Structure to design on (335 residues):
């Protein structure tokens, strides 16, 4: 069997069987943004890891080593944010090709230090090995969340409202500009979108607020909104109805999409690496959640609602027509 026959998520399901030998110590294992582990005292321990591979997750043709370091930290912190927690300690492992200089590695760690300081994270160790061709960087990260306040993908219920923070598609637009540097565009707009892609920010404050507010399910938008909705629906045993006209897409993204001949909604649903938070909340909690986020300078938009599983995932177009919402997003092993 080829890996492409299974796909990334099928492979994860296959590999995750019978891995827990001490279940009493595990609150939540494989299947969410981070594992949740029992801990003495008032907190649970969160544990996550992400690996970035040159040529897959970043390119040194347009990203500086410092930006790779920033991205490495932010994508891991985003997983902690999606659980409603905060990061505390991390270890970094590097696979270094010989073509990199000592100065390149110094700059990589400048980015790691900058992001770690922003999120209040200690880097306490790691490993370094030779990589024959590509730079590989992995961060394993520990965090905390109050007992009982971890937010899972599996908590959505029929009737819940569906929200997303910020706006979507900016990272995909930034990636397009990195790959098409000769596109004629306002320099300020181009610089902003490239930076969003190259130096992502985790929505840590929003995640903490949403955890404390008691939202029912949450995920970070790393592989595209459609893919994250699939994960929430699958884990919760529900469907969803999303309103196309309510998907928040920045006007600058629409400008780049028009020049590229692309649909900005496609970038929003399938582009990935926005690292916004998609979450669900009961209707009676909606105003409270919106006010809590607004008070902290965080924004969100209601984009639909959770429906019974038999209705599937559907997209409501501006004219009222309903079409299936394809759960397309990034899959490492897709053919």
């Amino acid at each position: 069997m080829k890996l492409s026959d299974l796909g990334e998520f099928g492979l994860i399901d296959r590999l995750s069987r019978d891995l827990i030998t001490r279940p009493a110590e595990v609150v939540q294992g494989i299947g969410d943004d981070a594992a949740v582990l029992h801990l003495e005292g008032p907190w649970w321990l969160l544990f996550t890891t992400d690996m970035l591979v040159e040529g897959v997750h970043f390119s040194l043709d347009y990203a500086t080593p410092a930006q790779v370091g920033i991205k490495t930290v932010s994508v891991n912190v985003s997983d902690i944010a999606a659980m409603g927690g905060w990061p505390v300690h991390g270890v970094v492992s590097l696979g270094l090709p010989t073509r990199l200089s000592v100065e390149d590695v110094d700059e990589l760690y400048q980015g790691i230090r900058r992001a770690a300081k922003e999120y209040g994270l200690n880097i306490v160790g790691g490993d370094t090995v030779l990589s024959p061709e590509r730079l590989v960087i992995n961060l394993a990260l520990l965090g905390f969340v109050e007992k009982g306040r971890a937010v899972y993908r599996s908590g959505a219920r029929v009737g819940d409202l569906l929200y997303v923070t910020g706006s979507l598609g900016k990272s995909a637009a930034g990636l397009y500009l990195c790959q098409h540097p000769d596109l004629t565009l306002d320099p300020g707009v181009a610089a902003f979108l490239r930076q969003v892609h190259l130096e992502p920010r985790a929505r840590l404050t929003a995640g903490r607020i949403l955890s404390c507010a008691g939202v029912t399910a949450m995920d970070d938008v790393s592989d595209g909104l459609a893919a994250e909705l699939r994960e929430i629906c699958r884990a919760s045993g529900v469907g969803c109805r999303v309103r196309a006209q309510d998907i928040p897409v920045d006007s600058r993204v629409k400008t780049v999409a028009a020049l590229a001949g692309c649909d900005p909604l496609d970038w929003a649903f399938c582009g990935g690496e926005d690292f916004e938070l998609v979450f669900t909340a009961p209707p009676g909690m909606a105003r409270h959640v919106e006010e809590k986020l607004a008070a902290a300078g965080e924004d969100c938009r209601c984009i639909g609602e959770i429906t019974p599983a038999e209705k599937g995932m559907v997209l409501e177009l501006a004219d009222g027509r309903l079409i299936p919402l394809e759960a397309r997003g990034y899959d490492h092993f897709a053919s």
